[in-house]
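Cross-posting from the chemistry board since nobody answered there.

I work mostly on the small-molecule side, so proteins are not my area. We synthesized pyridoxal-5'-phosphate and want a rough idea of how it might sit in this target. Sequence and SMILES are below. Is it possible to get a predicted 3D structure of the two together?
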Amino acid sequence: MVRKTFRGTFTQQEPIPEDAIERAVEVMRSGRLHRYNIADGEVSETALLESDFASYMGAKYCLACASGGYAMHIVLRSFGLQPNEPVLTNGFTLSPVPGAINNAGGRPVLVECTRNLVIDLNDLERKIQQSGARVLLLSHMRGHIVDMDALVALLTQYRVALIEDCAHTMGAYWGERKSGSFGVAACFSTQTYKHLNSGEGGLITTDDSALMANAVIRSGSYMLYGRHVAVPNASTFVDARLDNPNHSGRMDNLRAAILRPQLKLLDKNRERWNLRYRAVEAALRDIDGVVLPQRPSKETYVGSSIQFLAEGLDKENVQDFITRCQARGVDLKWFGSHEPVAYTSRHDTWRYVEPQALPQTDAVLDKLCDMRIPLSFSVEDCRLIGQIIAEEFVYSVTGSEHHC
Ligand SMILES: *Cc1c(COP(=O)(O)O)cnc(C)c1O
C-alpha cells in the first residue's frame, strides 16, 4: 500500500481578492488611511464597512475596531462591567476570550463543555446561581453552536445578558437567524485565520444604542462619531462622549478596503468550506474510536476547522497519533497537552484566572483533536487528509497498517 503524504500548508490562506487589492491601492494613493481622515463629503472606507456589515448581520449598529479580542473587551466595558465582576464564559475556548474579560476588569467564571464541544447548559445554570453573574460571554468555539433556543430561554429566566463571540461563526446560522443576532452584542474577528482576512481586525454588532455609543467613544473616536454611519443619532452621544475613556483601538481604511469585497464572498465561501469539511468528515465517520461532534439540524456551520475526539486512544497514544499524522504532512492540534502549543491552551494554564475545577471539560480536552481547513486546500486535498488521519488512527489503535 502506498502511504501518501500531504504537501499543503495549513496556515496558507487564499490571496486577497483582486478587487480588494485594487481598492486598497486606491486608499494608499489617497494617503487617507486613518478612518477620520476624510475628504469633503467623503464617507470613509471604515464607515462603509460598518454599514455593509450591519446590513449583512441585520443589526442596527456596527463598529469596526483593532481586533476580535479588543471587540470583546470594549463590549464588556461598554455594557458597564464593574471591577472584579464575574463574567460567565466557556471553559473550552481560545485565550483571547478570558484575556478580554481580564482586560475589561472582570473575573472569568468558567463553564463546562459537552462532548459536542458546546457550553454545558446544566453547568451554566449552576454557575449562574453560584456566581450571580449578569453576563455570559459565549464563545461559539470552533464554530459549534449550542442549542440557542434553550440557551436564550435559560438566560432570560435568570436575566443574564448574552454577548456572543462569533470569531468562528461569522456566516453561520442557528435556524433562520444568524449567529451573532441572539445577544445584546456580538464580536467578530477579521484576523488572518478567521472568515475574513485583514491581518488583524474586529467588528461589533448590536441593536443597543447606548452600548454602541459607549463602544464608539471607547474605541478612540475622539468627538468624530458624526463620521460614522452605522451608529445611533447624536443625542445618544451627549453623555457617552464624556462618560467613556478613550481606549484607542480603531480600524483603519486600508483594512476596511480589503474587507468590504471579501464580505460579498462570505456566503459562497461558507459552502466552499463546508465541502472541504465534509470531505474530511466522511473519511473519519466510520472509524472505530473516532467520535465526531453531533451537529444539530438547526445549525448551519462554517467548516473552517474540524474537531474529533480520539476516544479509542489513551492520552499517551494521542500524542503519538498526532506525531504520525504530522510526519505525513497533516497538522493536527491537540487540546490535551498541559503545555500550551500554538493556539491551543487549557484553562488550567491561564494562571491569571482563579483555578476552577472542570473535570468534564478536561476529559473532553484530553481526547480533542483539531485541524484548520484553509480554503487554499482543494476538496481532493481534504479527501487525502481525511484518509491519512483515518489510516494513522487505525494504526495507532491496532498497531498495524490499515488496508482499505
Ligand atoms: C481569534 C479568536 C478571538 C479573537 O480574535 P483576534 O482578532 O485574534 O483578537 C476570539 N475568540 C476566539 C474563539 C478566537 O478564535
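Reply from a structural biologist on the board:
Welcome over. Reading the output above for you: The chain has a mean pLDDT of 96. The CA atoms of residues 23 and 257 lie 6 Å apart. Happy to explain the C-alpha cell format if needed.
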